[in-house]
Write a structure and sequence with these properties.
This protein has one domain: Lipocalin (Beta Barrel), CATH 2.40.128.110. Helix content is 16%, strand content 48%. The chain has two helices and ten strands. It is elongated and about 45 Å long.
Length: 185
């Protein structure tokens, strides 16, 4: 009787262990802030204006086999905006009609759902810019190299949806954002 109970107990432990091992585990990824690239472009009066942000703070839980438990949260300091032209940078940071970074110091994204596509993934969530929260969809790829990986994404936004800059005028209404985030576990 005792041997029969021991065998049942052993089988139970083996079955439980197999179930735990088979469960997908969402991986926590740490962003390489130094090598992260967050760039943007928008048509300007004298051609396309290019710029970037820095200082990414993020919480990335991502597993290709467990997208339901995956999530991305990201914040960047709005005052890190840089276009390579000091006066333009100053206007973007300080003027109320542009980013008004003293009043609105952070630009944030929080995913609500991540899904697989033919070309990669979609992170559907909310973007908060200048105090305005709107739905946003970021298409991205994920290149996994074991303990290191790279997320590359892109999306566009209508600047007037976030009260950024005056309506019309010589600045384009659509801003294109590209993101490249090297990560490690």
């Amino acid at each position: 009787m005792c041997l029969k109970l021991e065998r049942m107990h052993f089988k139970y432990i083996v079955a439980l262990s197999a179930g735990i091992i088979a469960m997908p585990v969402t991986s926590h990824w740490n962003a390489d802030k130094t090598n992260t690239k967050i760039t943007f472009s928008v048509k300007g009066p004298f051609g396309t204006v290019h710029g970037h942000f820095s200082g990414l703070k993020s919480s990335i839980q991502f597993n290709e086999k467990d997208l339901k438990s995956s999530s991305i949260e990201a914040d960047i300091p709005a005052n890190t905006v840089s276009t390579g032209i000091g006066l333009r940078n100053s206007d973007l940071k300080r003027k109320k009609e542009w980013l008004d970074t003293e009043k609105y110091p952070q630009i944030s994204f929080q995913s609500k759902q991540i899904t697989k596509t033919a070309a990669g993934y979609l992170a559907q969530g909310e973007l908060t810019l200048k105090g305005v929260k709107k739905p946003a969809v970021i298409s991205f790829t994920f290149t996994n190299q074991g303990k290191n990986a790279t997320f590359k994404g892109r999306f566009t936004l209508k600047r007037q949806d976030f009260n950024v800059g005056p309506a019309g005028g010589s600045v384009g209404s659509i801003v294109s954002i590209n993101i490249e985030v090297p990560v490690h576990q």
